[in-house]
Write a structure and sequence with these properties.
Blueprint (H helix, E strand, L loop, with lengths): L1 H12 L22 E3 L11 E4 L6 E2 L2 E5 L5 H8 L7 H13 L11 H5 L1 H5 L5 E6 L10 H7 L12 H8 L7 H15 L6 E6 L9 H11 L4 H9 L2 H26 L6 E5 L2 E6 L7 H10 L6 E6 L2 E5 L13 E2 L4 E4 L2 H11 L1
Parallel strand pairs: 8-9
Antiparallel strand pairs: 1-2, 2-4, 3-4, 5-6, 7-8, 9-10, 10-12, 11-12
Helix pairs in contact: 1-2, 1-3, 1-10, 3-9, 6-7, 9-11, 10-11
Length: 358
Amino acid sequence: MIAASIIIRLMGAHKIDVGVSSASTLLTTTPPDTSLIIGSKPPRGGGGLAILRRRDEGPKIGEWIIIYASGSISQEVLEAVSQFYQVPRELRGAAVAGHMASFSKNLLSSVDDKIISGLGEVFGSDSSHIKEGLKVMGFGVWDSLSYVFENTLDPYIPGVTGNPSKVSEIVGSIQQSDKEALKRLSKAINDLTGLELVSVGLKPIYWDEYPFVDPYELHICLLASIASGSPEVSSYISTGMPGLSRIAYRCLDHKKMIIDYLKDIIDKSKRVSTYSVKGRVVTIYPRISVNIIWPVHRILALLSHYNGYAVYEIEEGYAIPVDKTIDPVSMKGLRITPGGLAIVESVQGAAEVVSLLQ
């Protein structure tokens, strides 16, 4: 998605029109010999973007050749484009989040310090600056630790995020500069949740004028924006600050919706059910806005909250996040949204989709 936006920006700078479309339309399209398409589906940990290119060898789907990247291709695209075009700082900053996402199965707070320490060399020292402290969304930017923990979604901390009274009780008067106190705080929170969610280490932070405080927040907001479809989001990012600011503005409501929904799940105000259907284990989550399925799905995965596959009830039926690279032919006939959700009418239908994903 971010790699695609860099290429869109490059082409726009050279007055070349770029077509942006959902992947499903490619099965019925005959590409010109000079075509290059970067597939931008919802971000997924451990897997990169699929590149489709017309050539003579390789696995084919119709007229298209599919090549799978093992990680994010943002770095490779940036290096290639930078040889003849100065990629704007705001796009390089966005690429930091995409690059980090390829090293995590869920969210960015779990990315290893070795990856963080090399970001400046890869994306430019001005793309973000690195701070040592809590690997928590907002740390190092928001002065108040209480505000950081009350609003963090990466990691989301059950019983703490969205709970100001609990935050005040845990944080107390700890200062951000007190490294040993931060380590004790991390341990206290992890002991409280029974999960290794918070740690002390290296964390990238964006500059003051950027619409997002850090790559953690940008990643969450991109996951929330993906319901609109990768093509639209890639186009927004390619414009730089205007498009990124629009994504950030939309995300204000999304973040509140995520916190409210997860609170109801964690404190069991809303029912979650697990079924075995046709030999497939599925966990059914209650009614949810399509806009927040991806960030909620990533957070629930980080919390090891569901068994089997997570399925979300929506207004039109049920949605299953398709978060692995699959052969589009095997999914033919299914309704797949531009945001990477398989939509079915029943739990039985969800089990059939799950069988294709395993």
